Every structure is written in structure tokens, then in C-alpha cells.
Amino acid sequence: MGIFDSLLRSAGNAVKKEATKAVNDAAQNIGKGKNHTETFTFEALPETLEQLKALPEASLDSAFKTAALTILALCRYEHNVNQSLEMLDFLKGPAEVSTYEKQFIRERMEGKMYKARSYLAGATPENNYAPSVPYSVTVIENPYSFDNENWATLYVSSGGSDNPRPIKLRKKPSTGQWFLNDIQCLADIRVPVQEDPWA
């Protein structure tokens, strides 16, 4: 009878320990995967690949960092297309910006260079998408962002759109780095007030 009681007590303690661990894990994960956001602040926008690489976020060890740097790279497009594409190539990792992607970006940005700036805090149609300084980018996760292993779809908010726009990323397991896979955030937004004939 004593052996049975001892086994029962051991089993009970093991169950209690596992239950406590499950509760603690759940408590630590509250809010994760449910519209979790991360905001990144930059004193200046990088003008060259070297300046981008010098940022701490260039470690690319989180999908959020890579998404934020994608916006900075796109902001450079307005001033220097080649420098912007060099940055995007770096963010693509083992891949590179394809001819199709270059054409896609050109078509989406042509005559609407304010699109990239619209993802910086403070940039709105009313102020013609002039961002606040220091510059900041907020990256948003939803409950489905990390549904597929080594893939993520995160979102960035534009001052000219009611809904956040997606950026698709892919993780390289051997390095733990997240790379840009697909820029899906360049759909049209509200035009700046100075360009709006109905404003």
C-alpha cells in the first residue's frame, strides 16, 4: 500500500509541475501573435547600403527588423533608385531583387514617391507625407503572421490607408536571419492634399 501511495504522490506532483509550467508558459505568451507591434526609431534615413548595414536592425535576427528596414530602403527610392535597390538586394539575402520586382516597384512608385514615406510615423496626406523626426516605423503581427514555419507576413501602417499593408519574409534556419521575400505594401493610398484636386 505504501508503494502505491508513493507512486500516486509522484504522479500527482509530476502532473502539478506540468500544469504549473503550462500556465506559466501561457502567461508569458499573452499578447504574442495577437496584433503584437514593434516600433523602430531612426535618427536619419540611410542613403547607402553601408549606412543601412551599420544600423543595429541590420542583424536581421527578427522578421520585425527586416520589415522595418524594407521601409527605409523603399524611402531611398525617391532619391536614388540604384541605392534603394542595393539595400533591397541586401534585405533579400540569398535571393536578389528580380527584374519583375524592379518593374513592379517602378510601376507602383512612379509619380507616387510619397508611398514609402507614408509608412513613417507622422506622415499623412494633410502634411503631404512629411514624417516626424526622428523617423519611426511600426511593424505589426497578427494571429496568422507566423502560421508557416520559416515564413512570416507582417504589416506596416500607412498614414494614407485605413488598413495595414503586408510584407512577406522568409527565415534562413542556418543563420536565424529573416530576409525580405515579397513587398506587398505598395498598393495605392490617399494622395497628398497638395496633389488632390478635390481637397
The average pLDDT value, as a whole number, equals 88
Report the helical percentage: 25-40%
| Secondary-structure element series | HEHHHHHEEEE
Poorly predicted segments: 19-33
Query: How many whole angstroms does the radius of gyration measure?
Result: 22 Å
How much strand? 15-25%
User: How many DSSP helices?
Assistant: 6
Q: Any idea what the shape is?
A: globular
N-to-C span: 86 Å
Largest sheet: 5 strands, antiparallel
Strand count: 5
Structural class: alpha+beta
**Sheet with most strands: strand arrangement:** 1-2-3-4-5
Descriptive report:
The protein has 199 residues and is an alpha+beta fold. It has a domain at 57-193. It contains six helices and five strands, in the order αβαααααββββ. It has helices spanning 2-28, 49-53, 63-76, 81-92, 99-109, 114-117, and strands at 37-42, 135-140, 151-156, 165-172, 177-183. The chain has a five-stranded antiparallel beta sheet. Strand 4 and strand 5 form a beta hairpin. The protein is globular. The relative contact order is 0.15. Residues 19-33 have low confidence and may be disordered.
